[in-house]
Amino acid sequence: MPATDRSIFIMDAKSGNPKTRMKVVVVCALMGCLLVAACIPSFLKYLKQRRQIKAITPEQLYQFARSGDVARLKWILERRPDLLDAPGNTFGSTALQAAVWFSKAEAGDGTFATRGQGQRGK
């Protein structure tokens, strides 16, 4: 008999009863609003991170490599690999050169290994 109980509810919702239809519409509208409201904070966080990533300069990457900030270097290079070969100071040195020159072995060791294989020799 449970199948008939469900079918009665469906038939009642599709019937001409305006109160039942109104309840269904209101519930659906509220659920949609809740879903949208739940997504807004995540979307705003995504937009903020995207702006931060675009604002990073080669000079900042150079300073992070110079100081040995490995976690930040990895985070930036995963999102902006175009900064890898960009000169970061007035002499044209890159972040990799800064990591090696200032003896930041942990920064120069695996962080810059994400460079595409075979891109250099072309």
Structure in words:
- The structure is a single chain.
- Helices cover 68% and strands 0% of the residues.
- The chain is mostly helical and 122 residues long.
- It has 2 domains: 2-46; 56-114.
What are the SSEs and their pairings?
Elements: H1 2-14, H2 18-55, H3 58-67, H4 70-79, H5 95-101, H6 105-109
What is the 3D shape? Answer: rod-shaped
User: What is the terminal-to-terminal distance?
Assistant: 73 Å
Task: Give the biggest sheet.
Answer: none
How many DSSP E strands?
0
What is the helix content? Answer: 55-70%
Model regions low in confidence, pLDDT < 50 over at least 5 residues: 116-122
Order of helices and strands: HHHHHH
Number of domain units: 2
If you compute it from the alpha carbons, what radius of gyration comes out, rounded to the nearest whole angstrom?
28 Å
**Average residue pLDDT:** 76
Count of helices?
Answer: 6
Q: Strand portion, in percent?
A: under 5%
- Structural class, from secondary structure content? mainly alpha
